[in-house]
Design brief:
By secondary structure, the chain is mostly helical. Helix content is 71%, strand content 0%. The protein is elongated and about 50 Å long.
Amino acid sequence: MCQYCGCHENTIIGRLSAEHDALVDLTGDMVRAVDRGDPDTASALALRARDMLHPHTSAEEHGLFAALRLEEEAYADTIDRLCGEHTTLDGMIDRIVDGDLSLGREFARGLRDHIDREENSLFPASVVTIIDGDVWDRIEADDAAARGEPAPRPHDHDDHDHDHPHGHTH
C-alpha cells in the first residue's frame, strides 16, 4: 500500500487503508487454505472477508467517493471505474462464500489490483482536493451511516479553530 504521501494520516483514508490491509491478509489466507485442500477454513475466511468487504465498499462509495465527485468532477470516470470494480468484487466474494472456492485466486488478484488503484491514485488525490474540514466531517458521517454506525457528533466551526483527526484545521 502507498505510504509516501501521508494521506494515511487522514482518519477516513487511514481506516479504509487498514481495511485494505486486513482484506489482503484474509484473502491471501483464503487462497492458501484452498491450495492446501482445506475448504472449511477457506470458506470461513471468505465469509470474514465478505463481512468486511461489503460495508467497506459501501462506505467508500457513499462517503469518500461521493464527496470527491462533488468536489472535482474530473475524478468521475475513475470513481465510476472503481465502483464497477466494487460490484464485481462484491459479487465474486458472494460466489466464493456460496462455495465456488475456485474463484479465490482471481478474487485475491483483482482485489489487490483494485486496492492499488485506490491507494495510489484516488486516496492521495482526495486529501489534496478536499480541503474543507466540513466536507471531511460530512464524509465521516456518511462513512458511518454506510456502515450502520452512529454518526460522529456534529460541531460548529464558526467560533473556533482546531485540528481534526482527519488532518484538517478549522
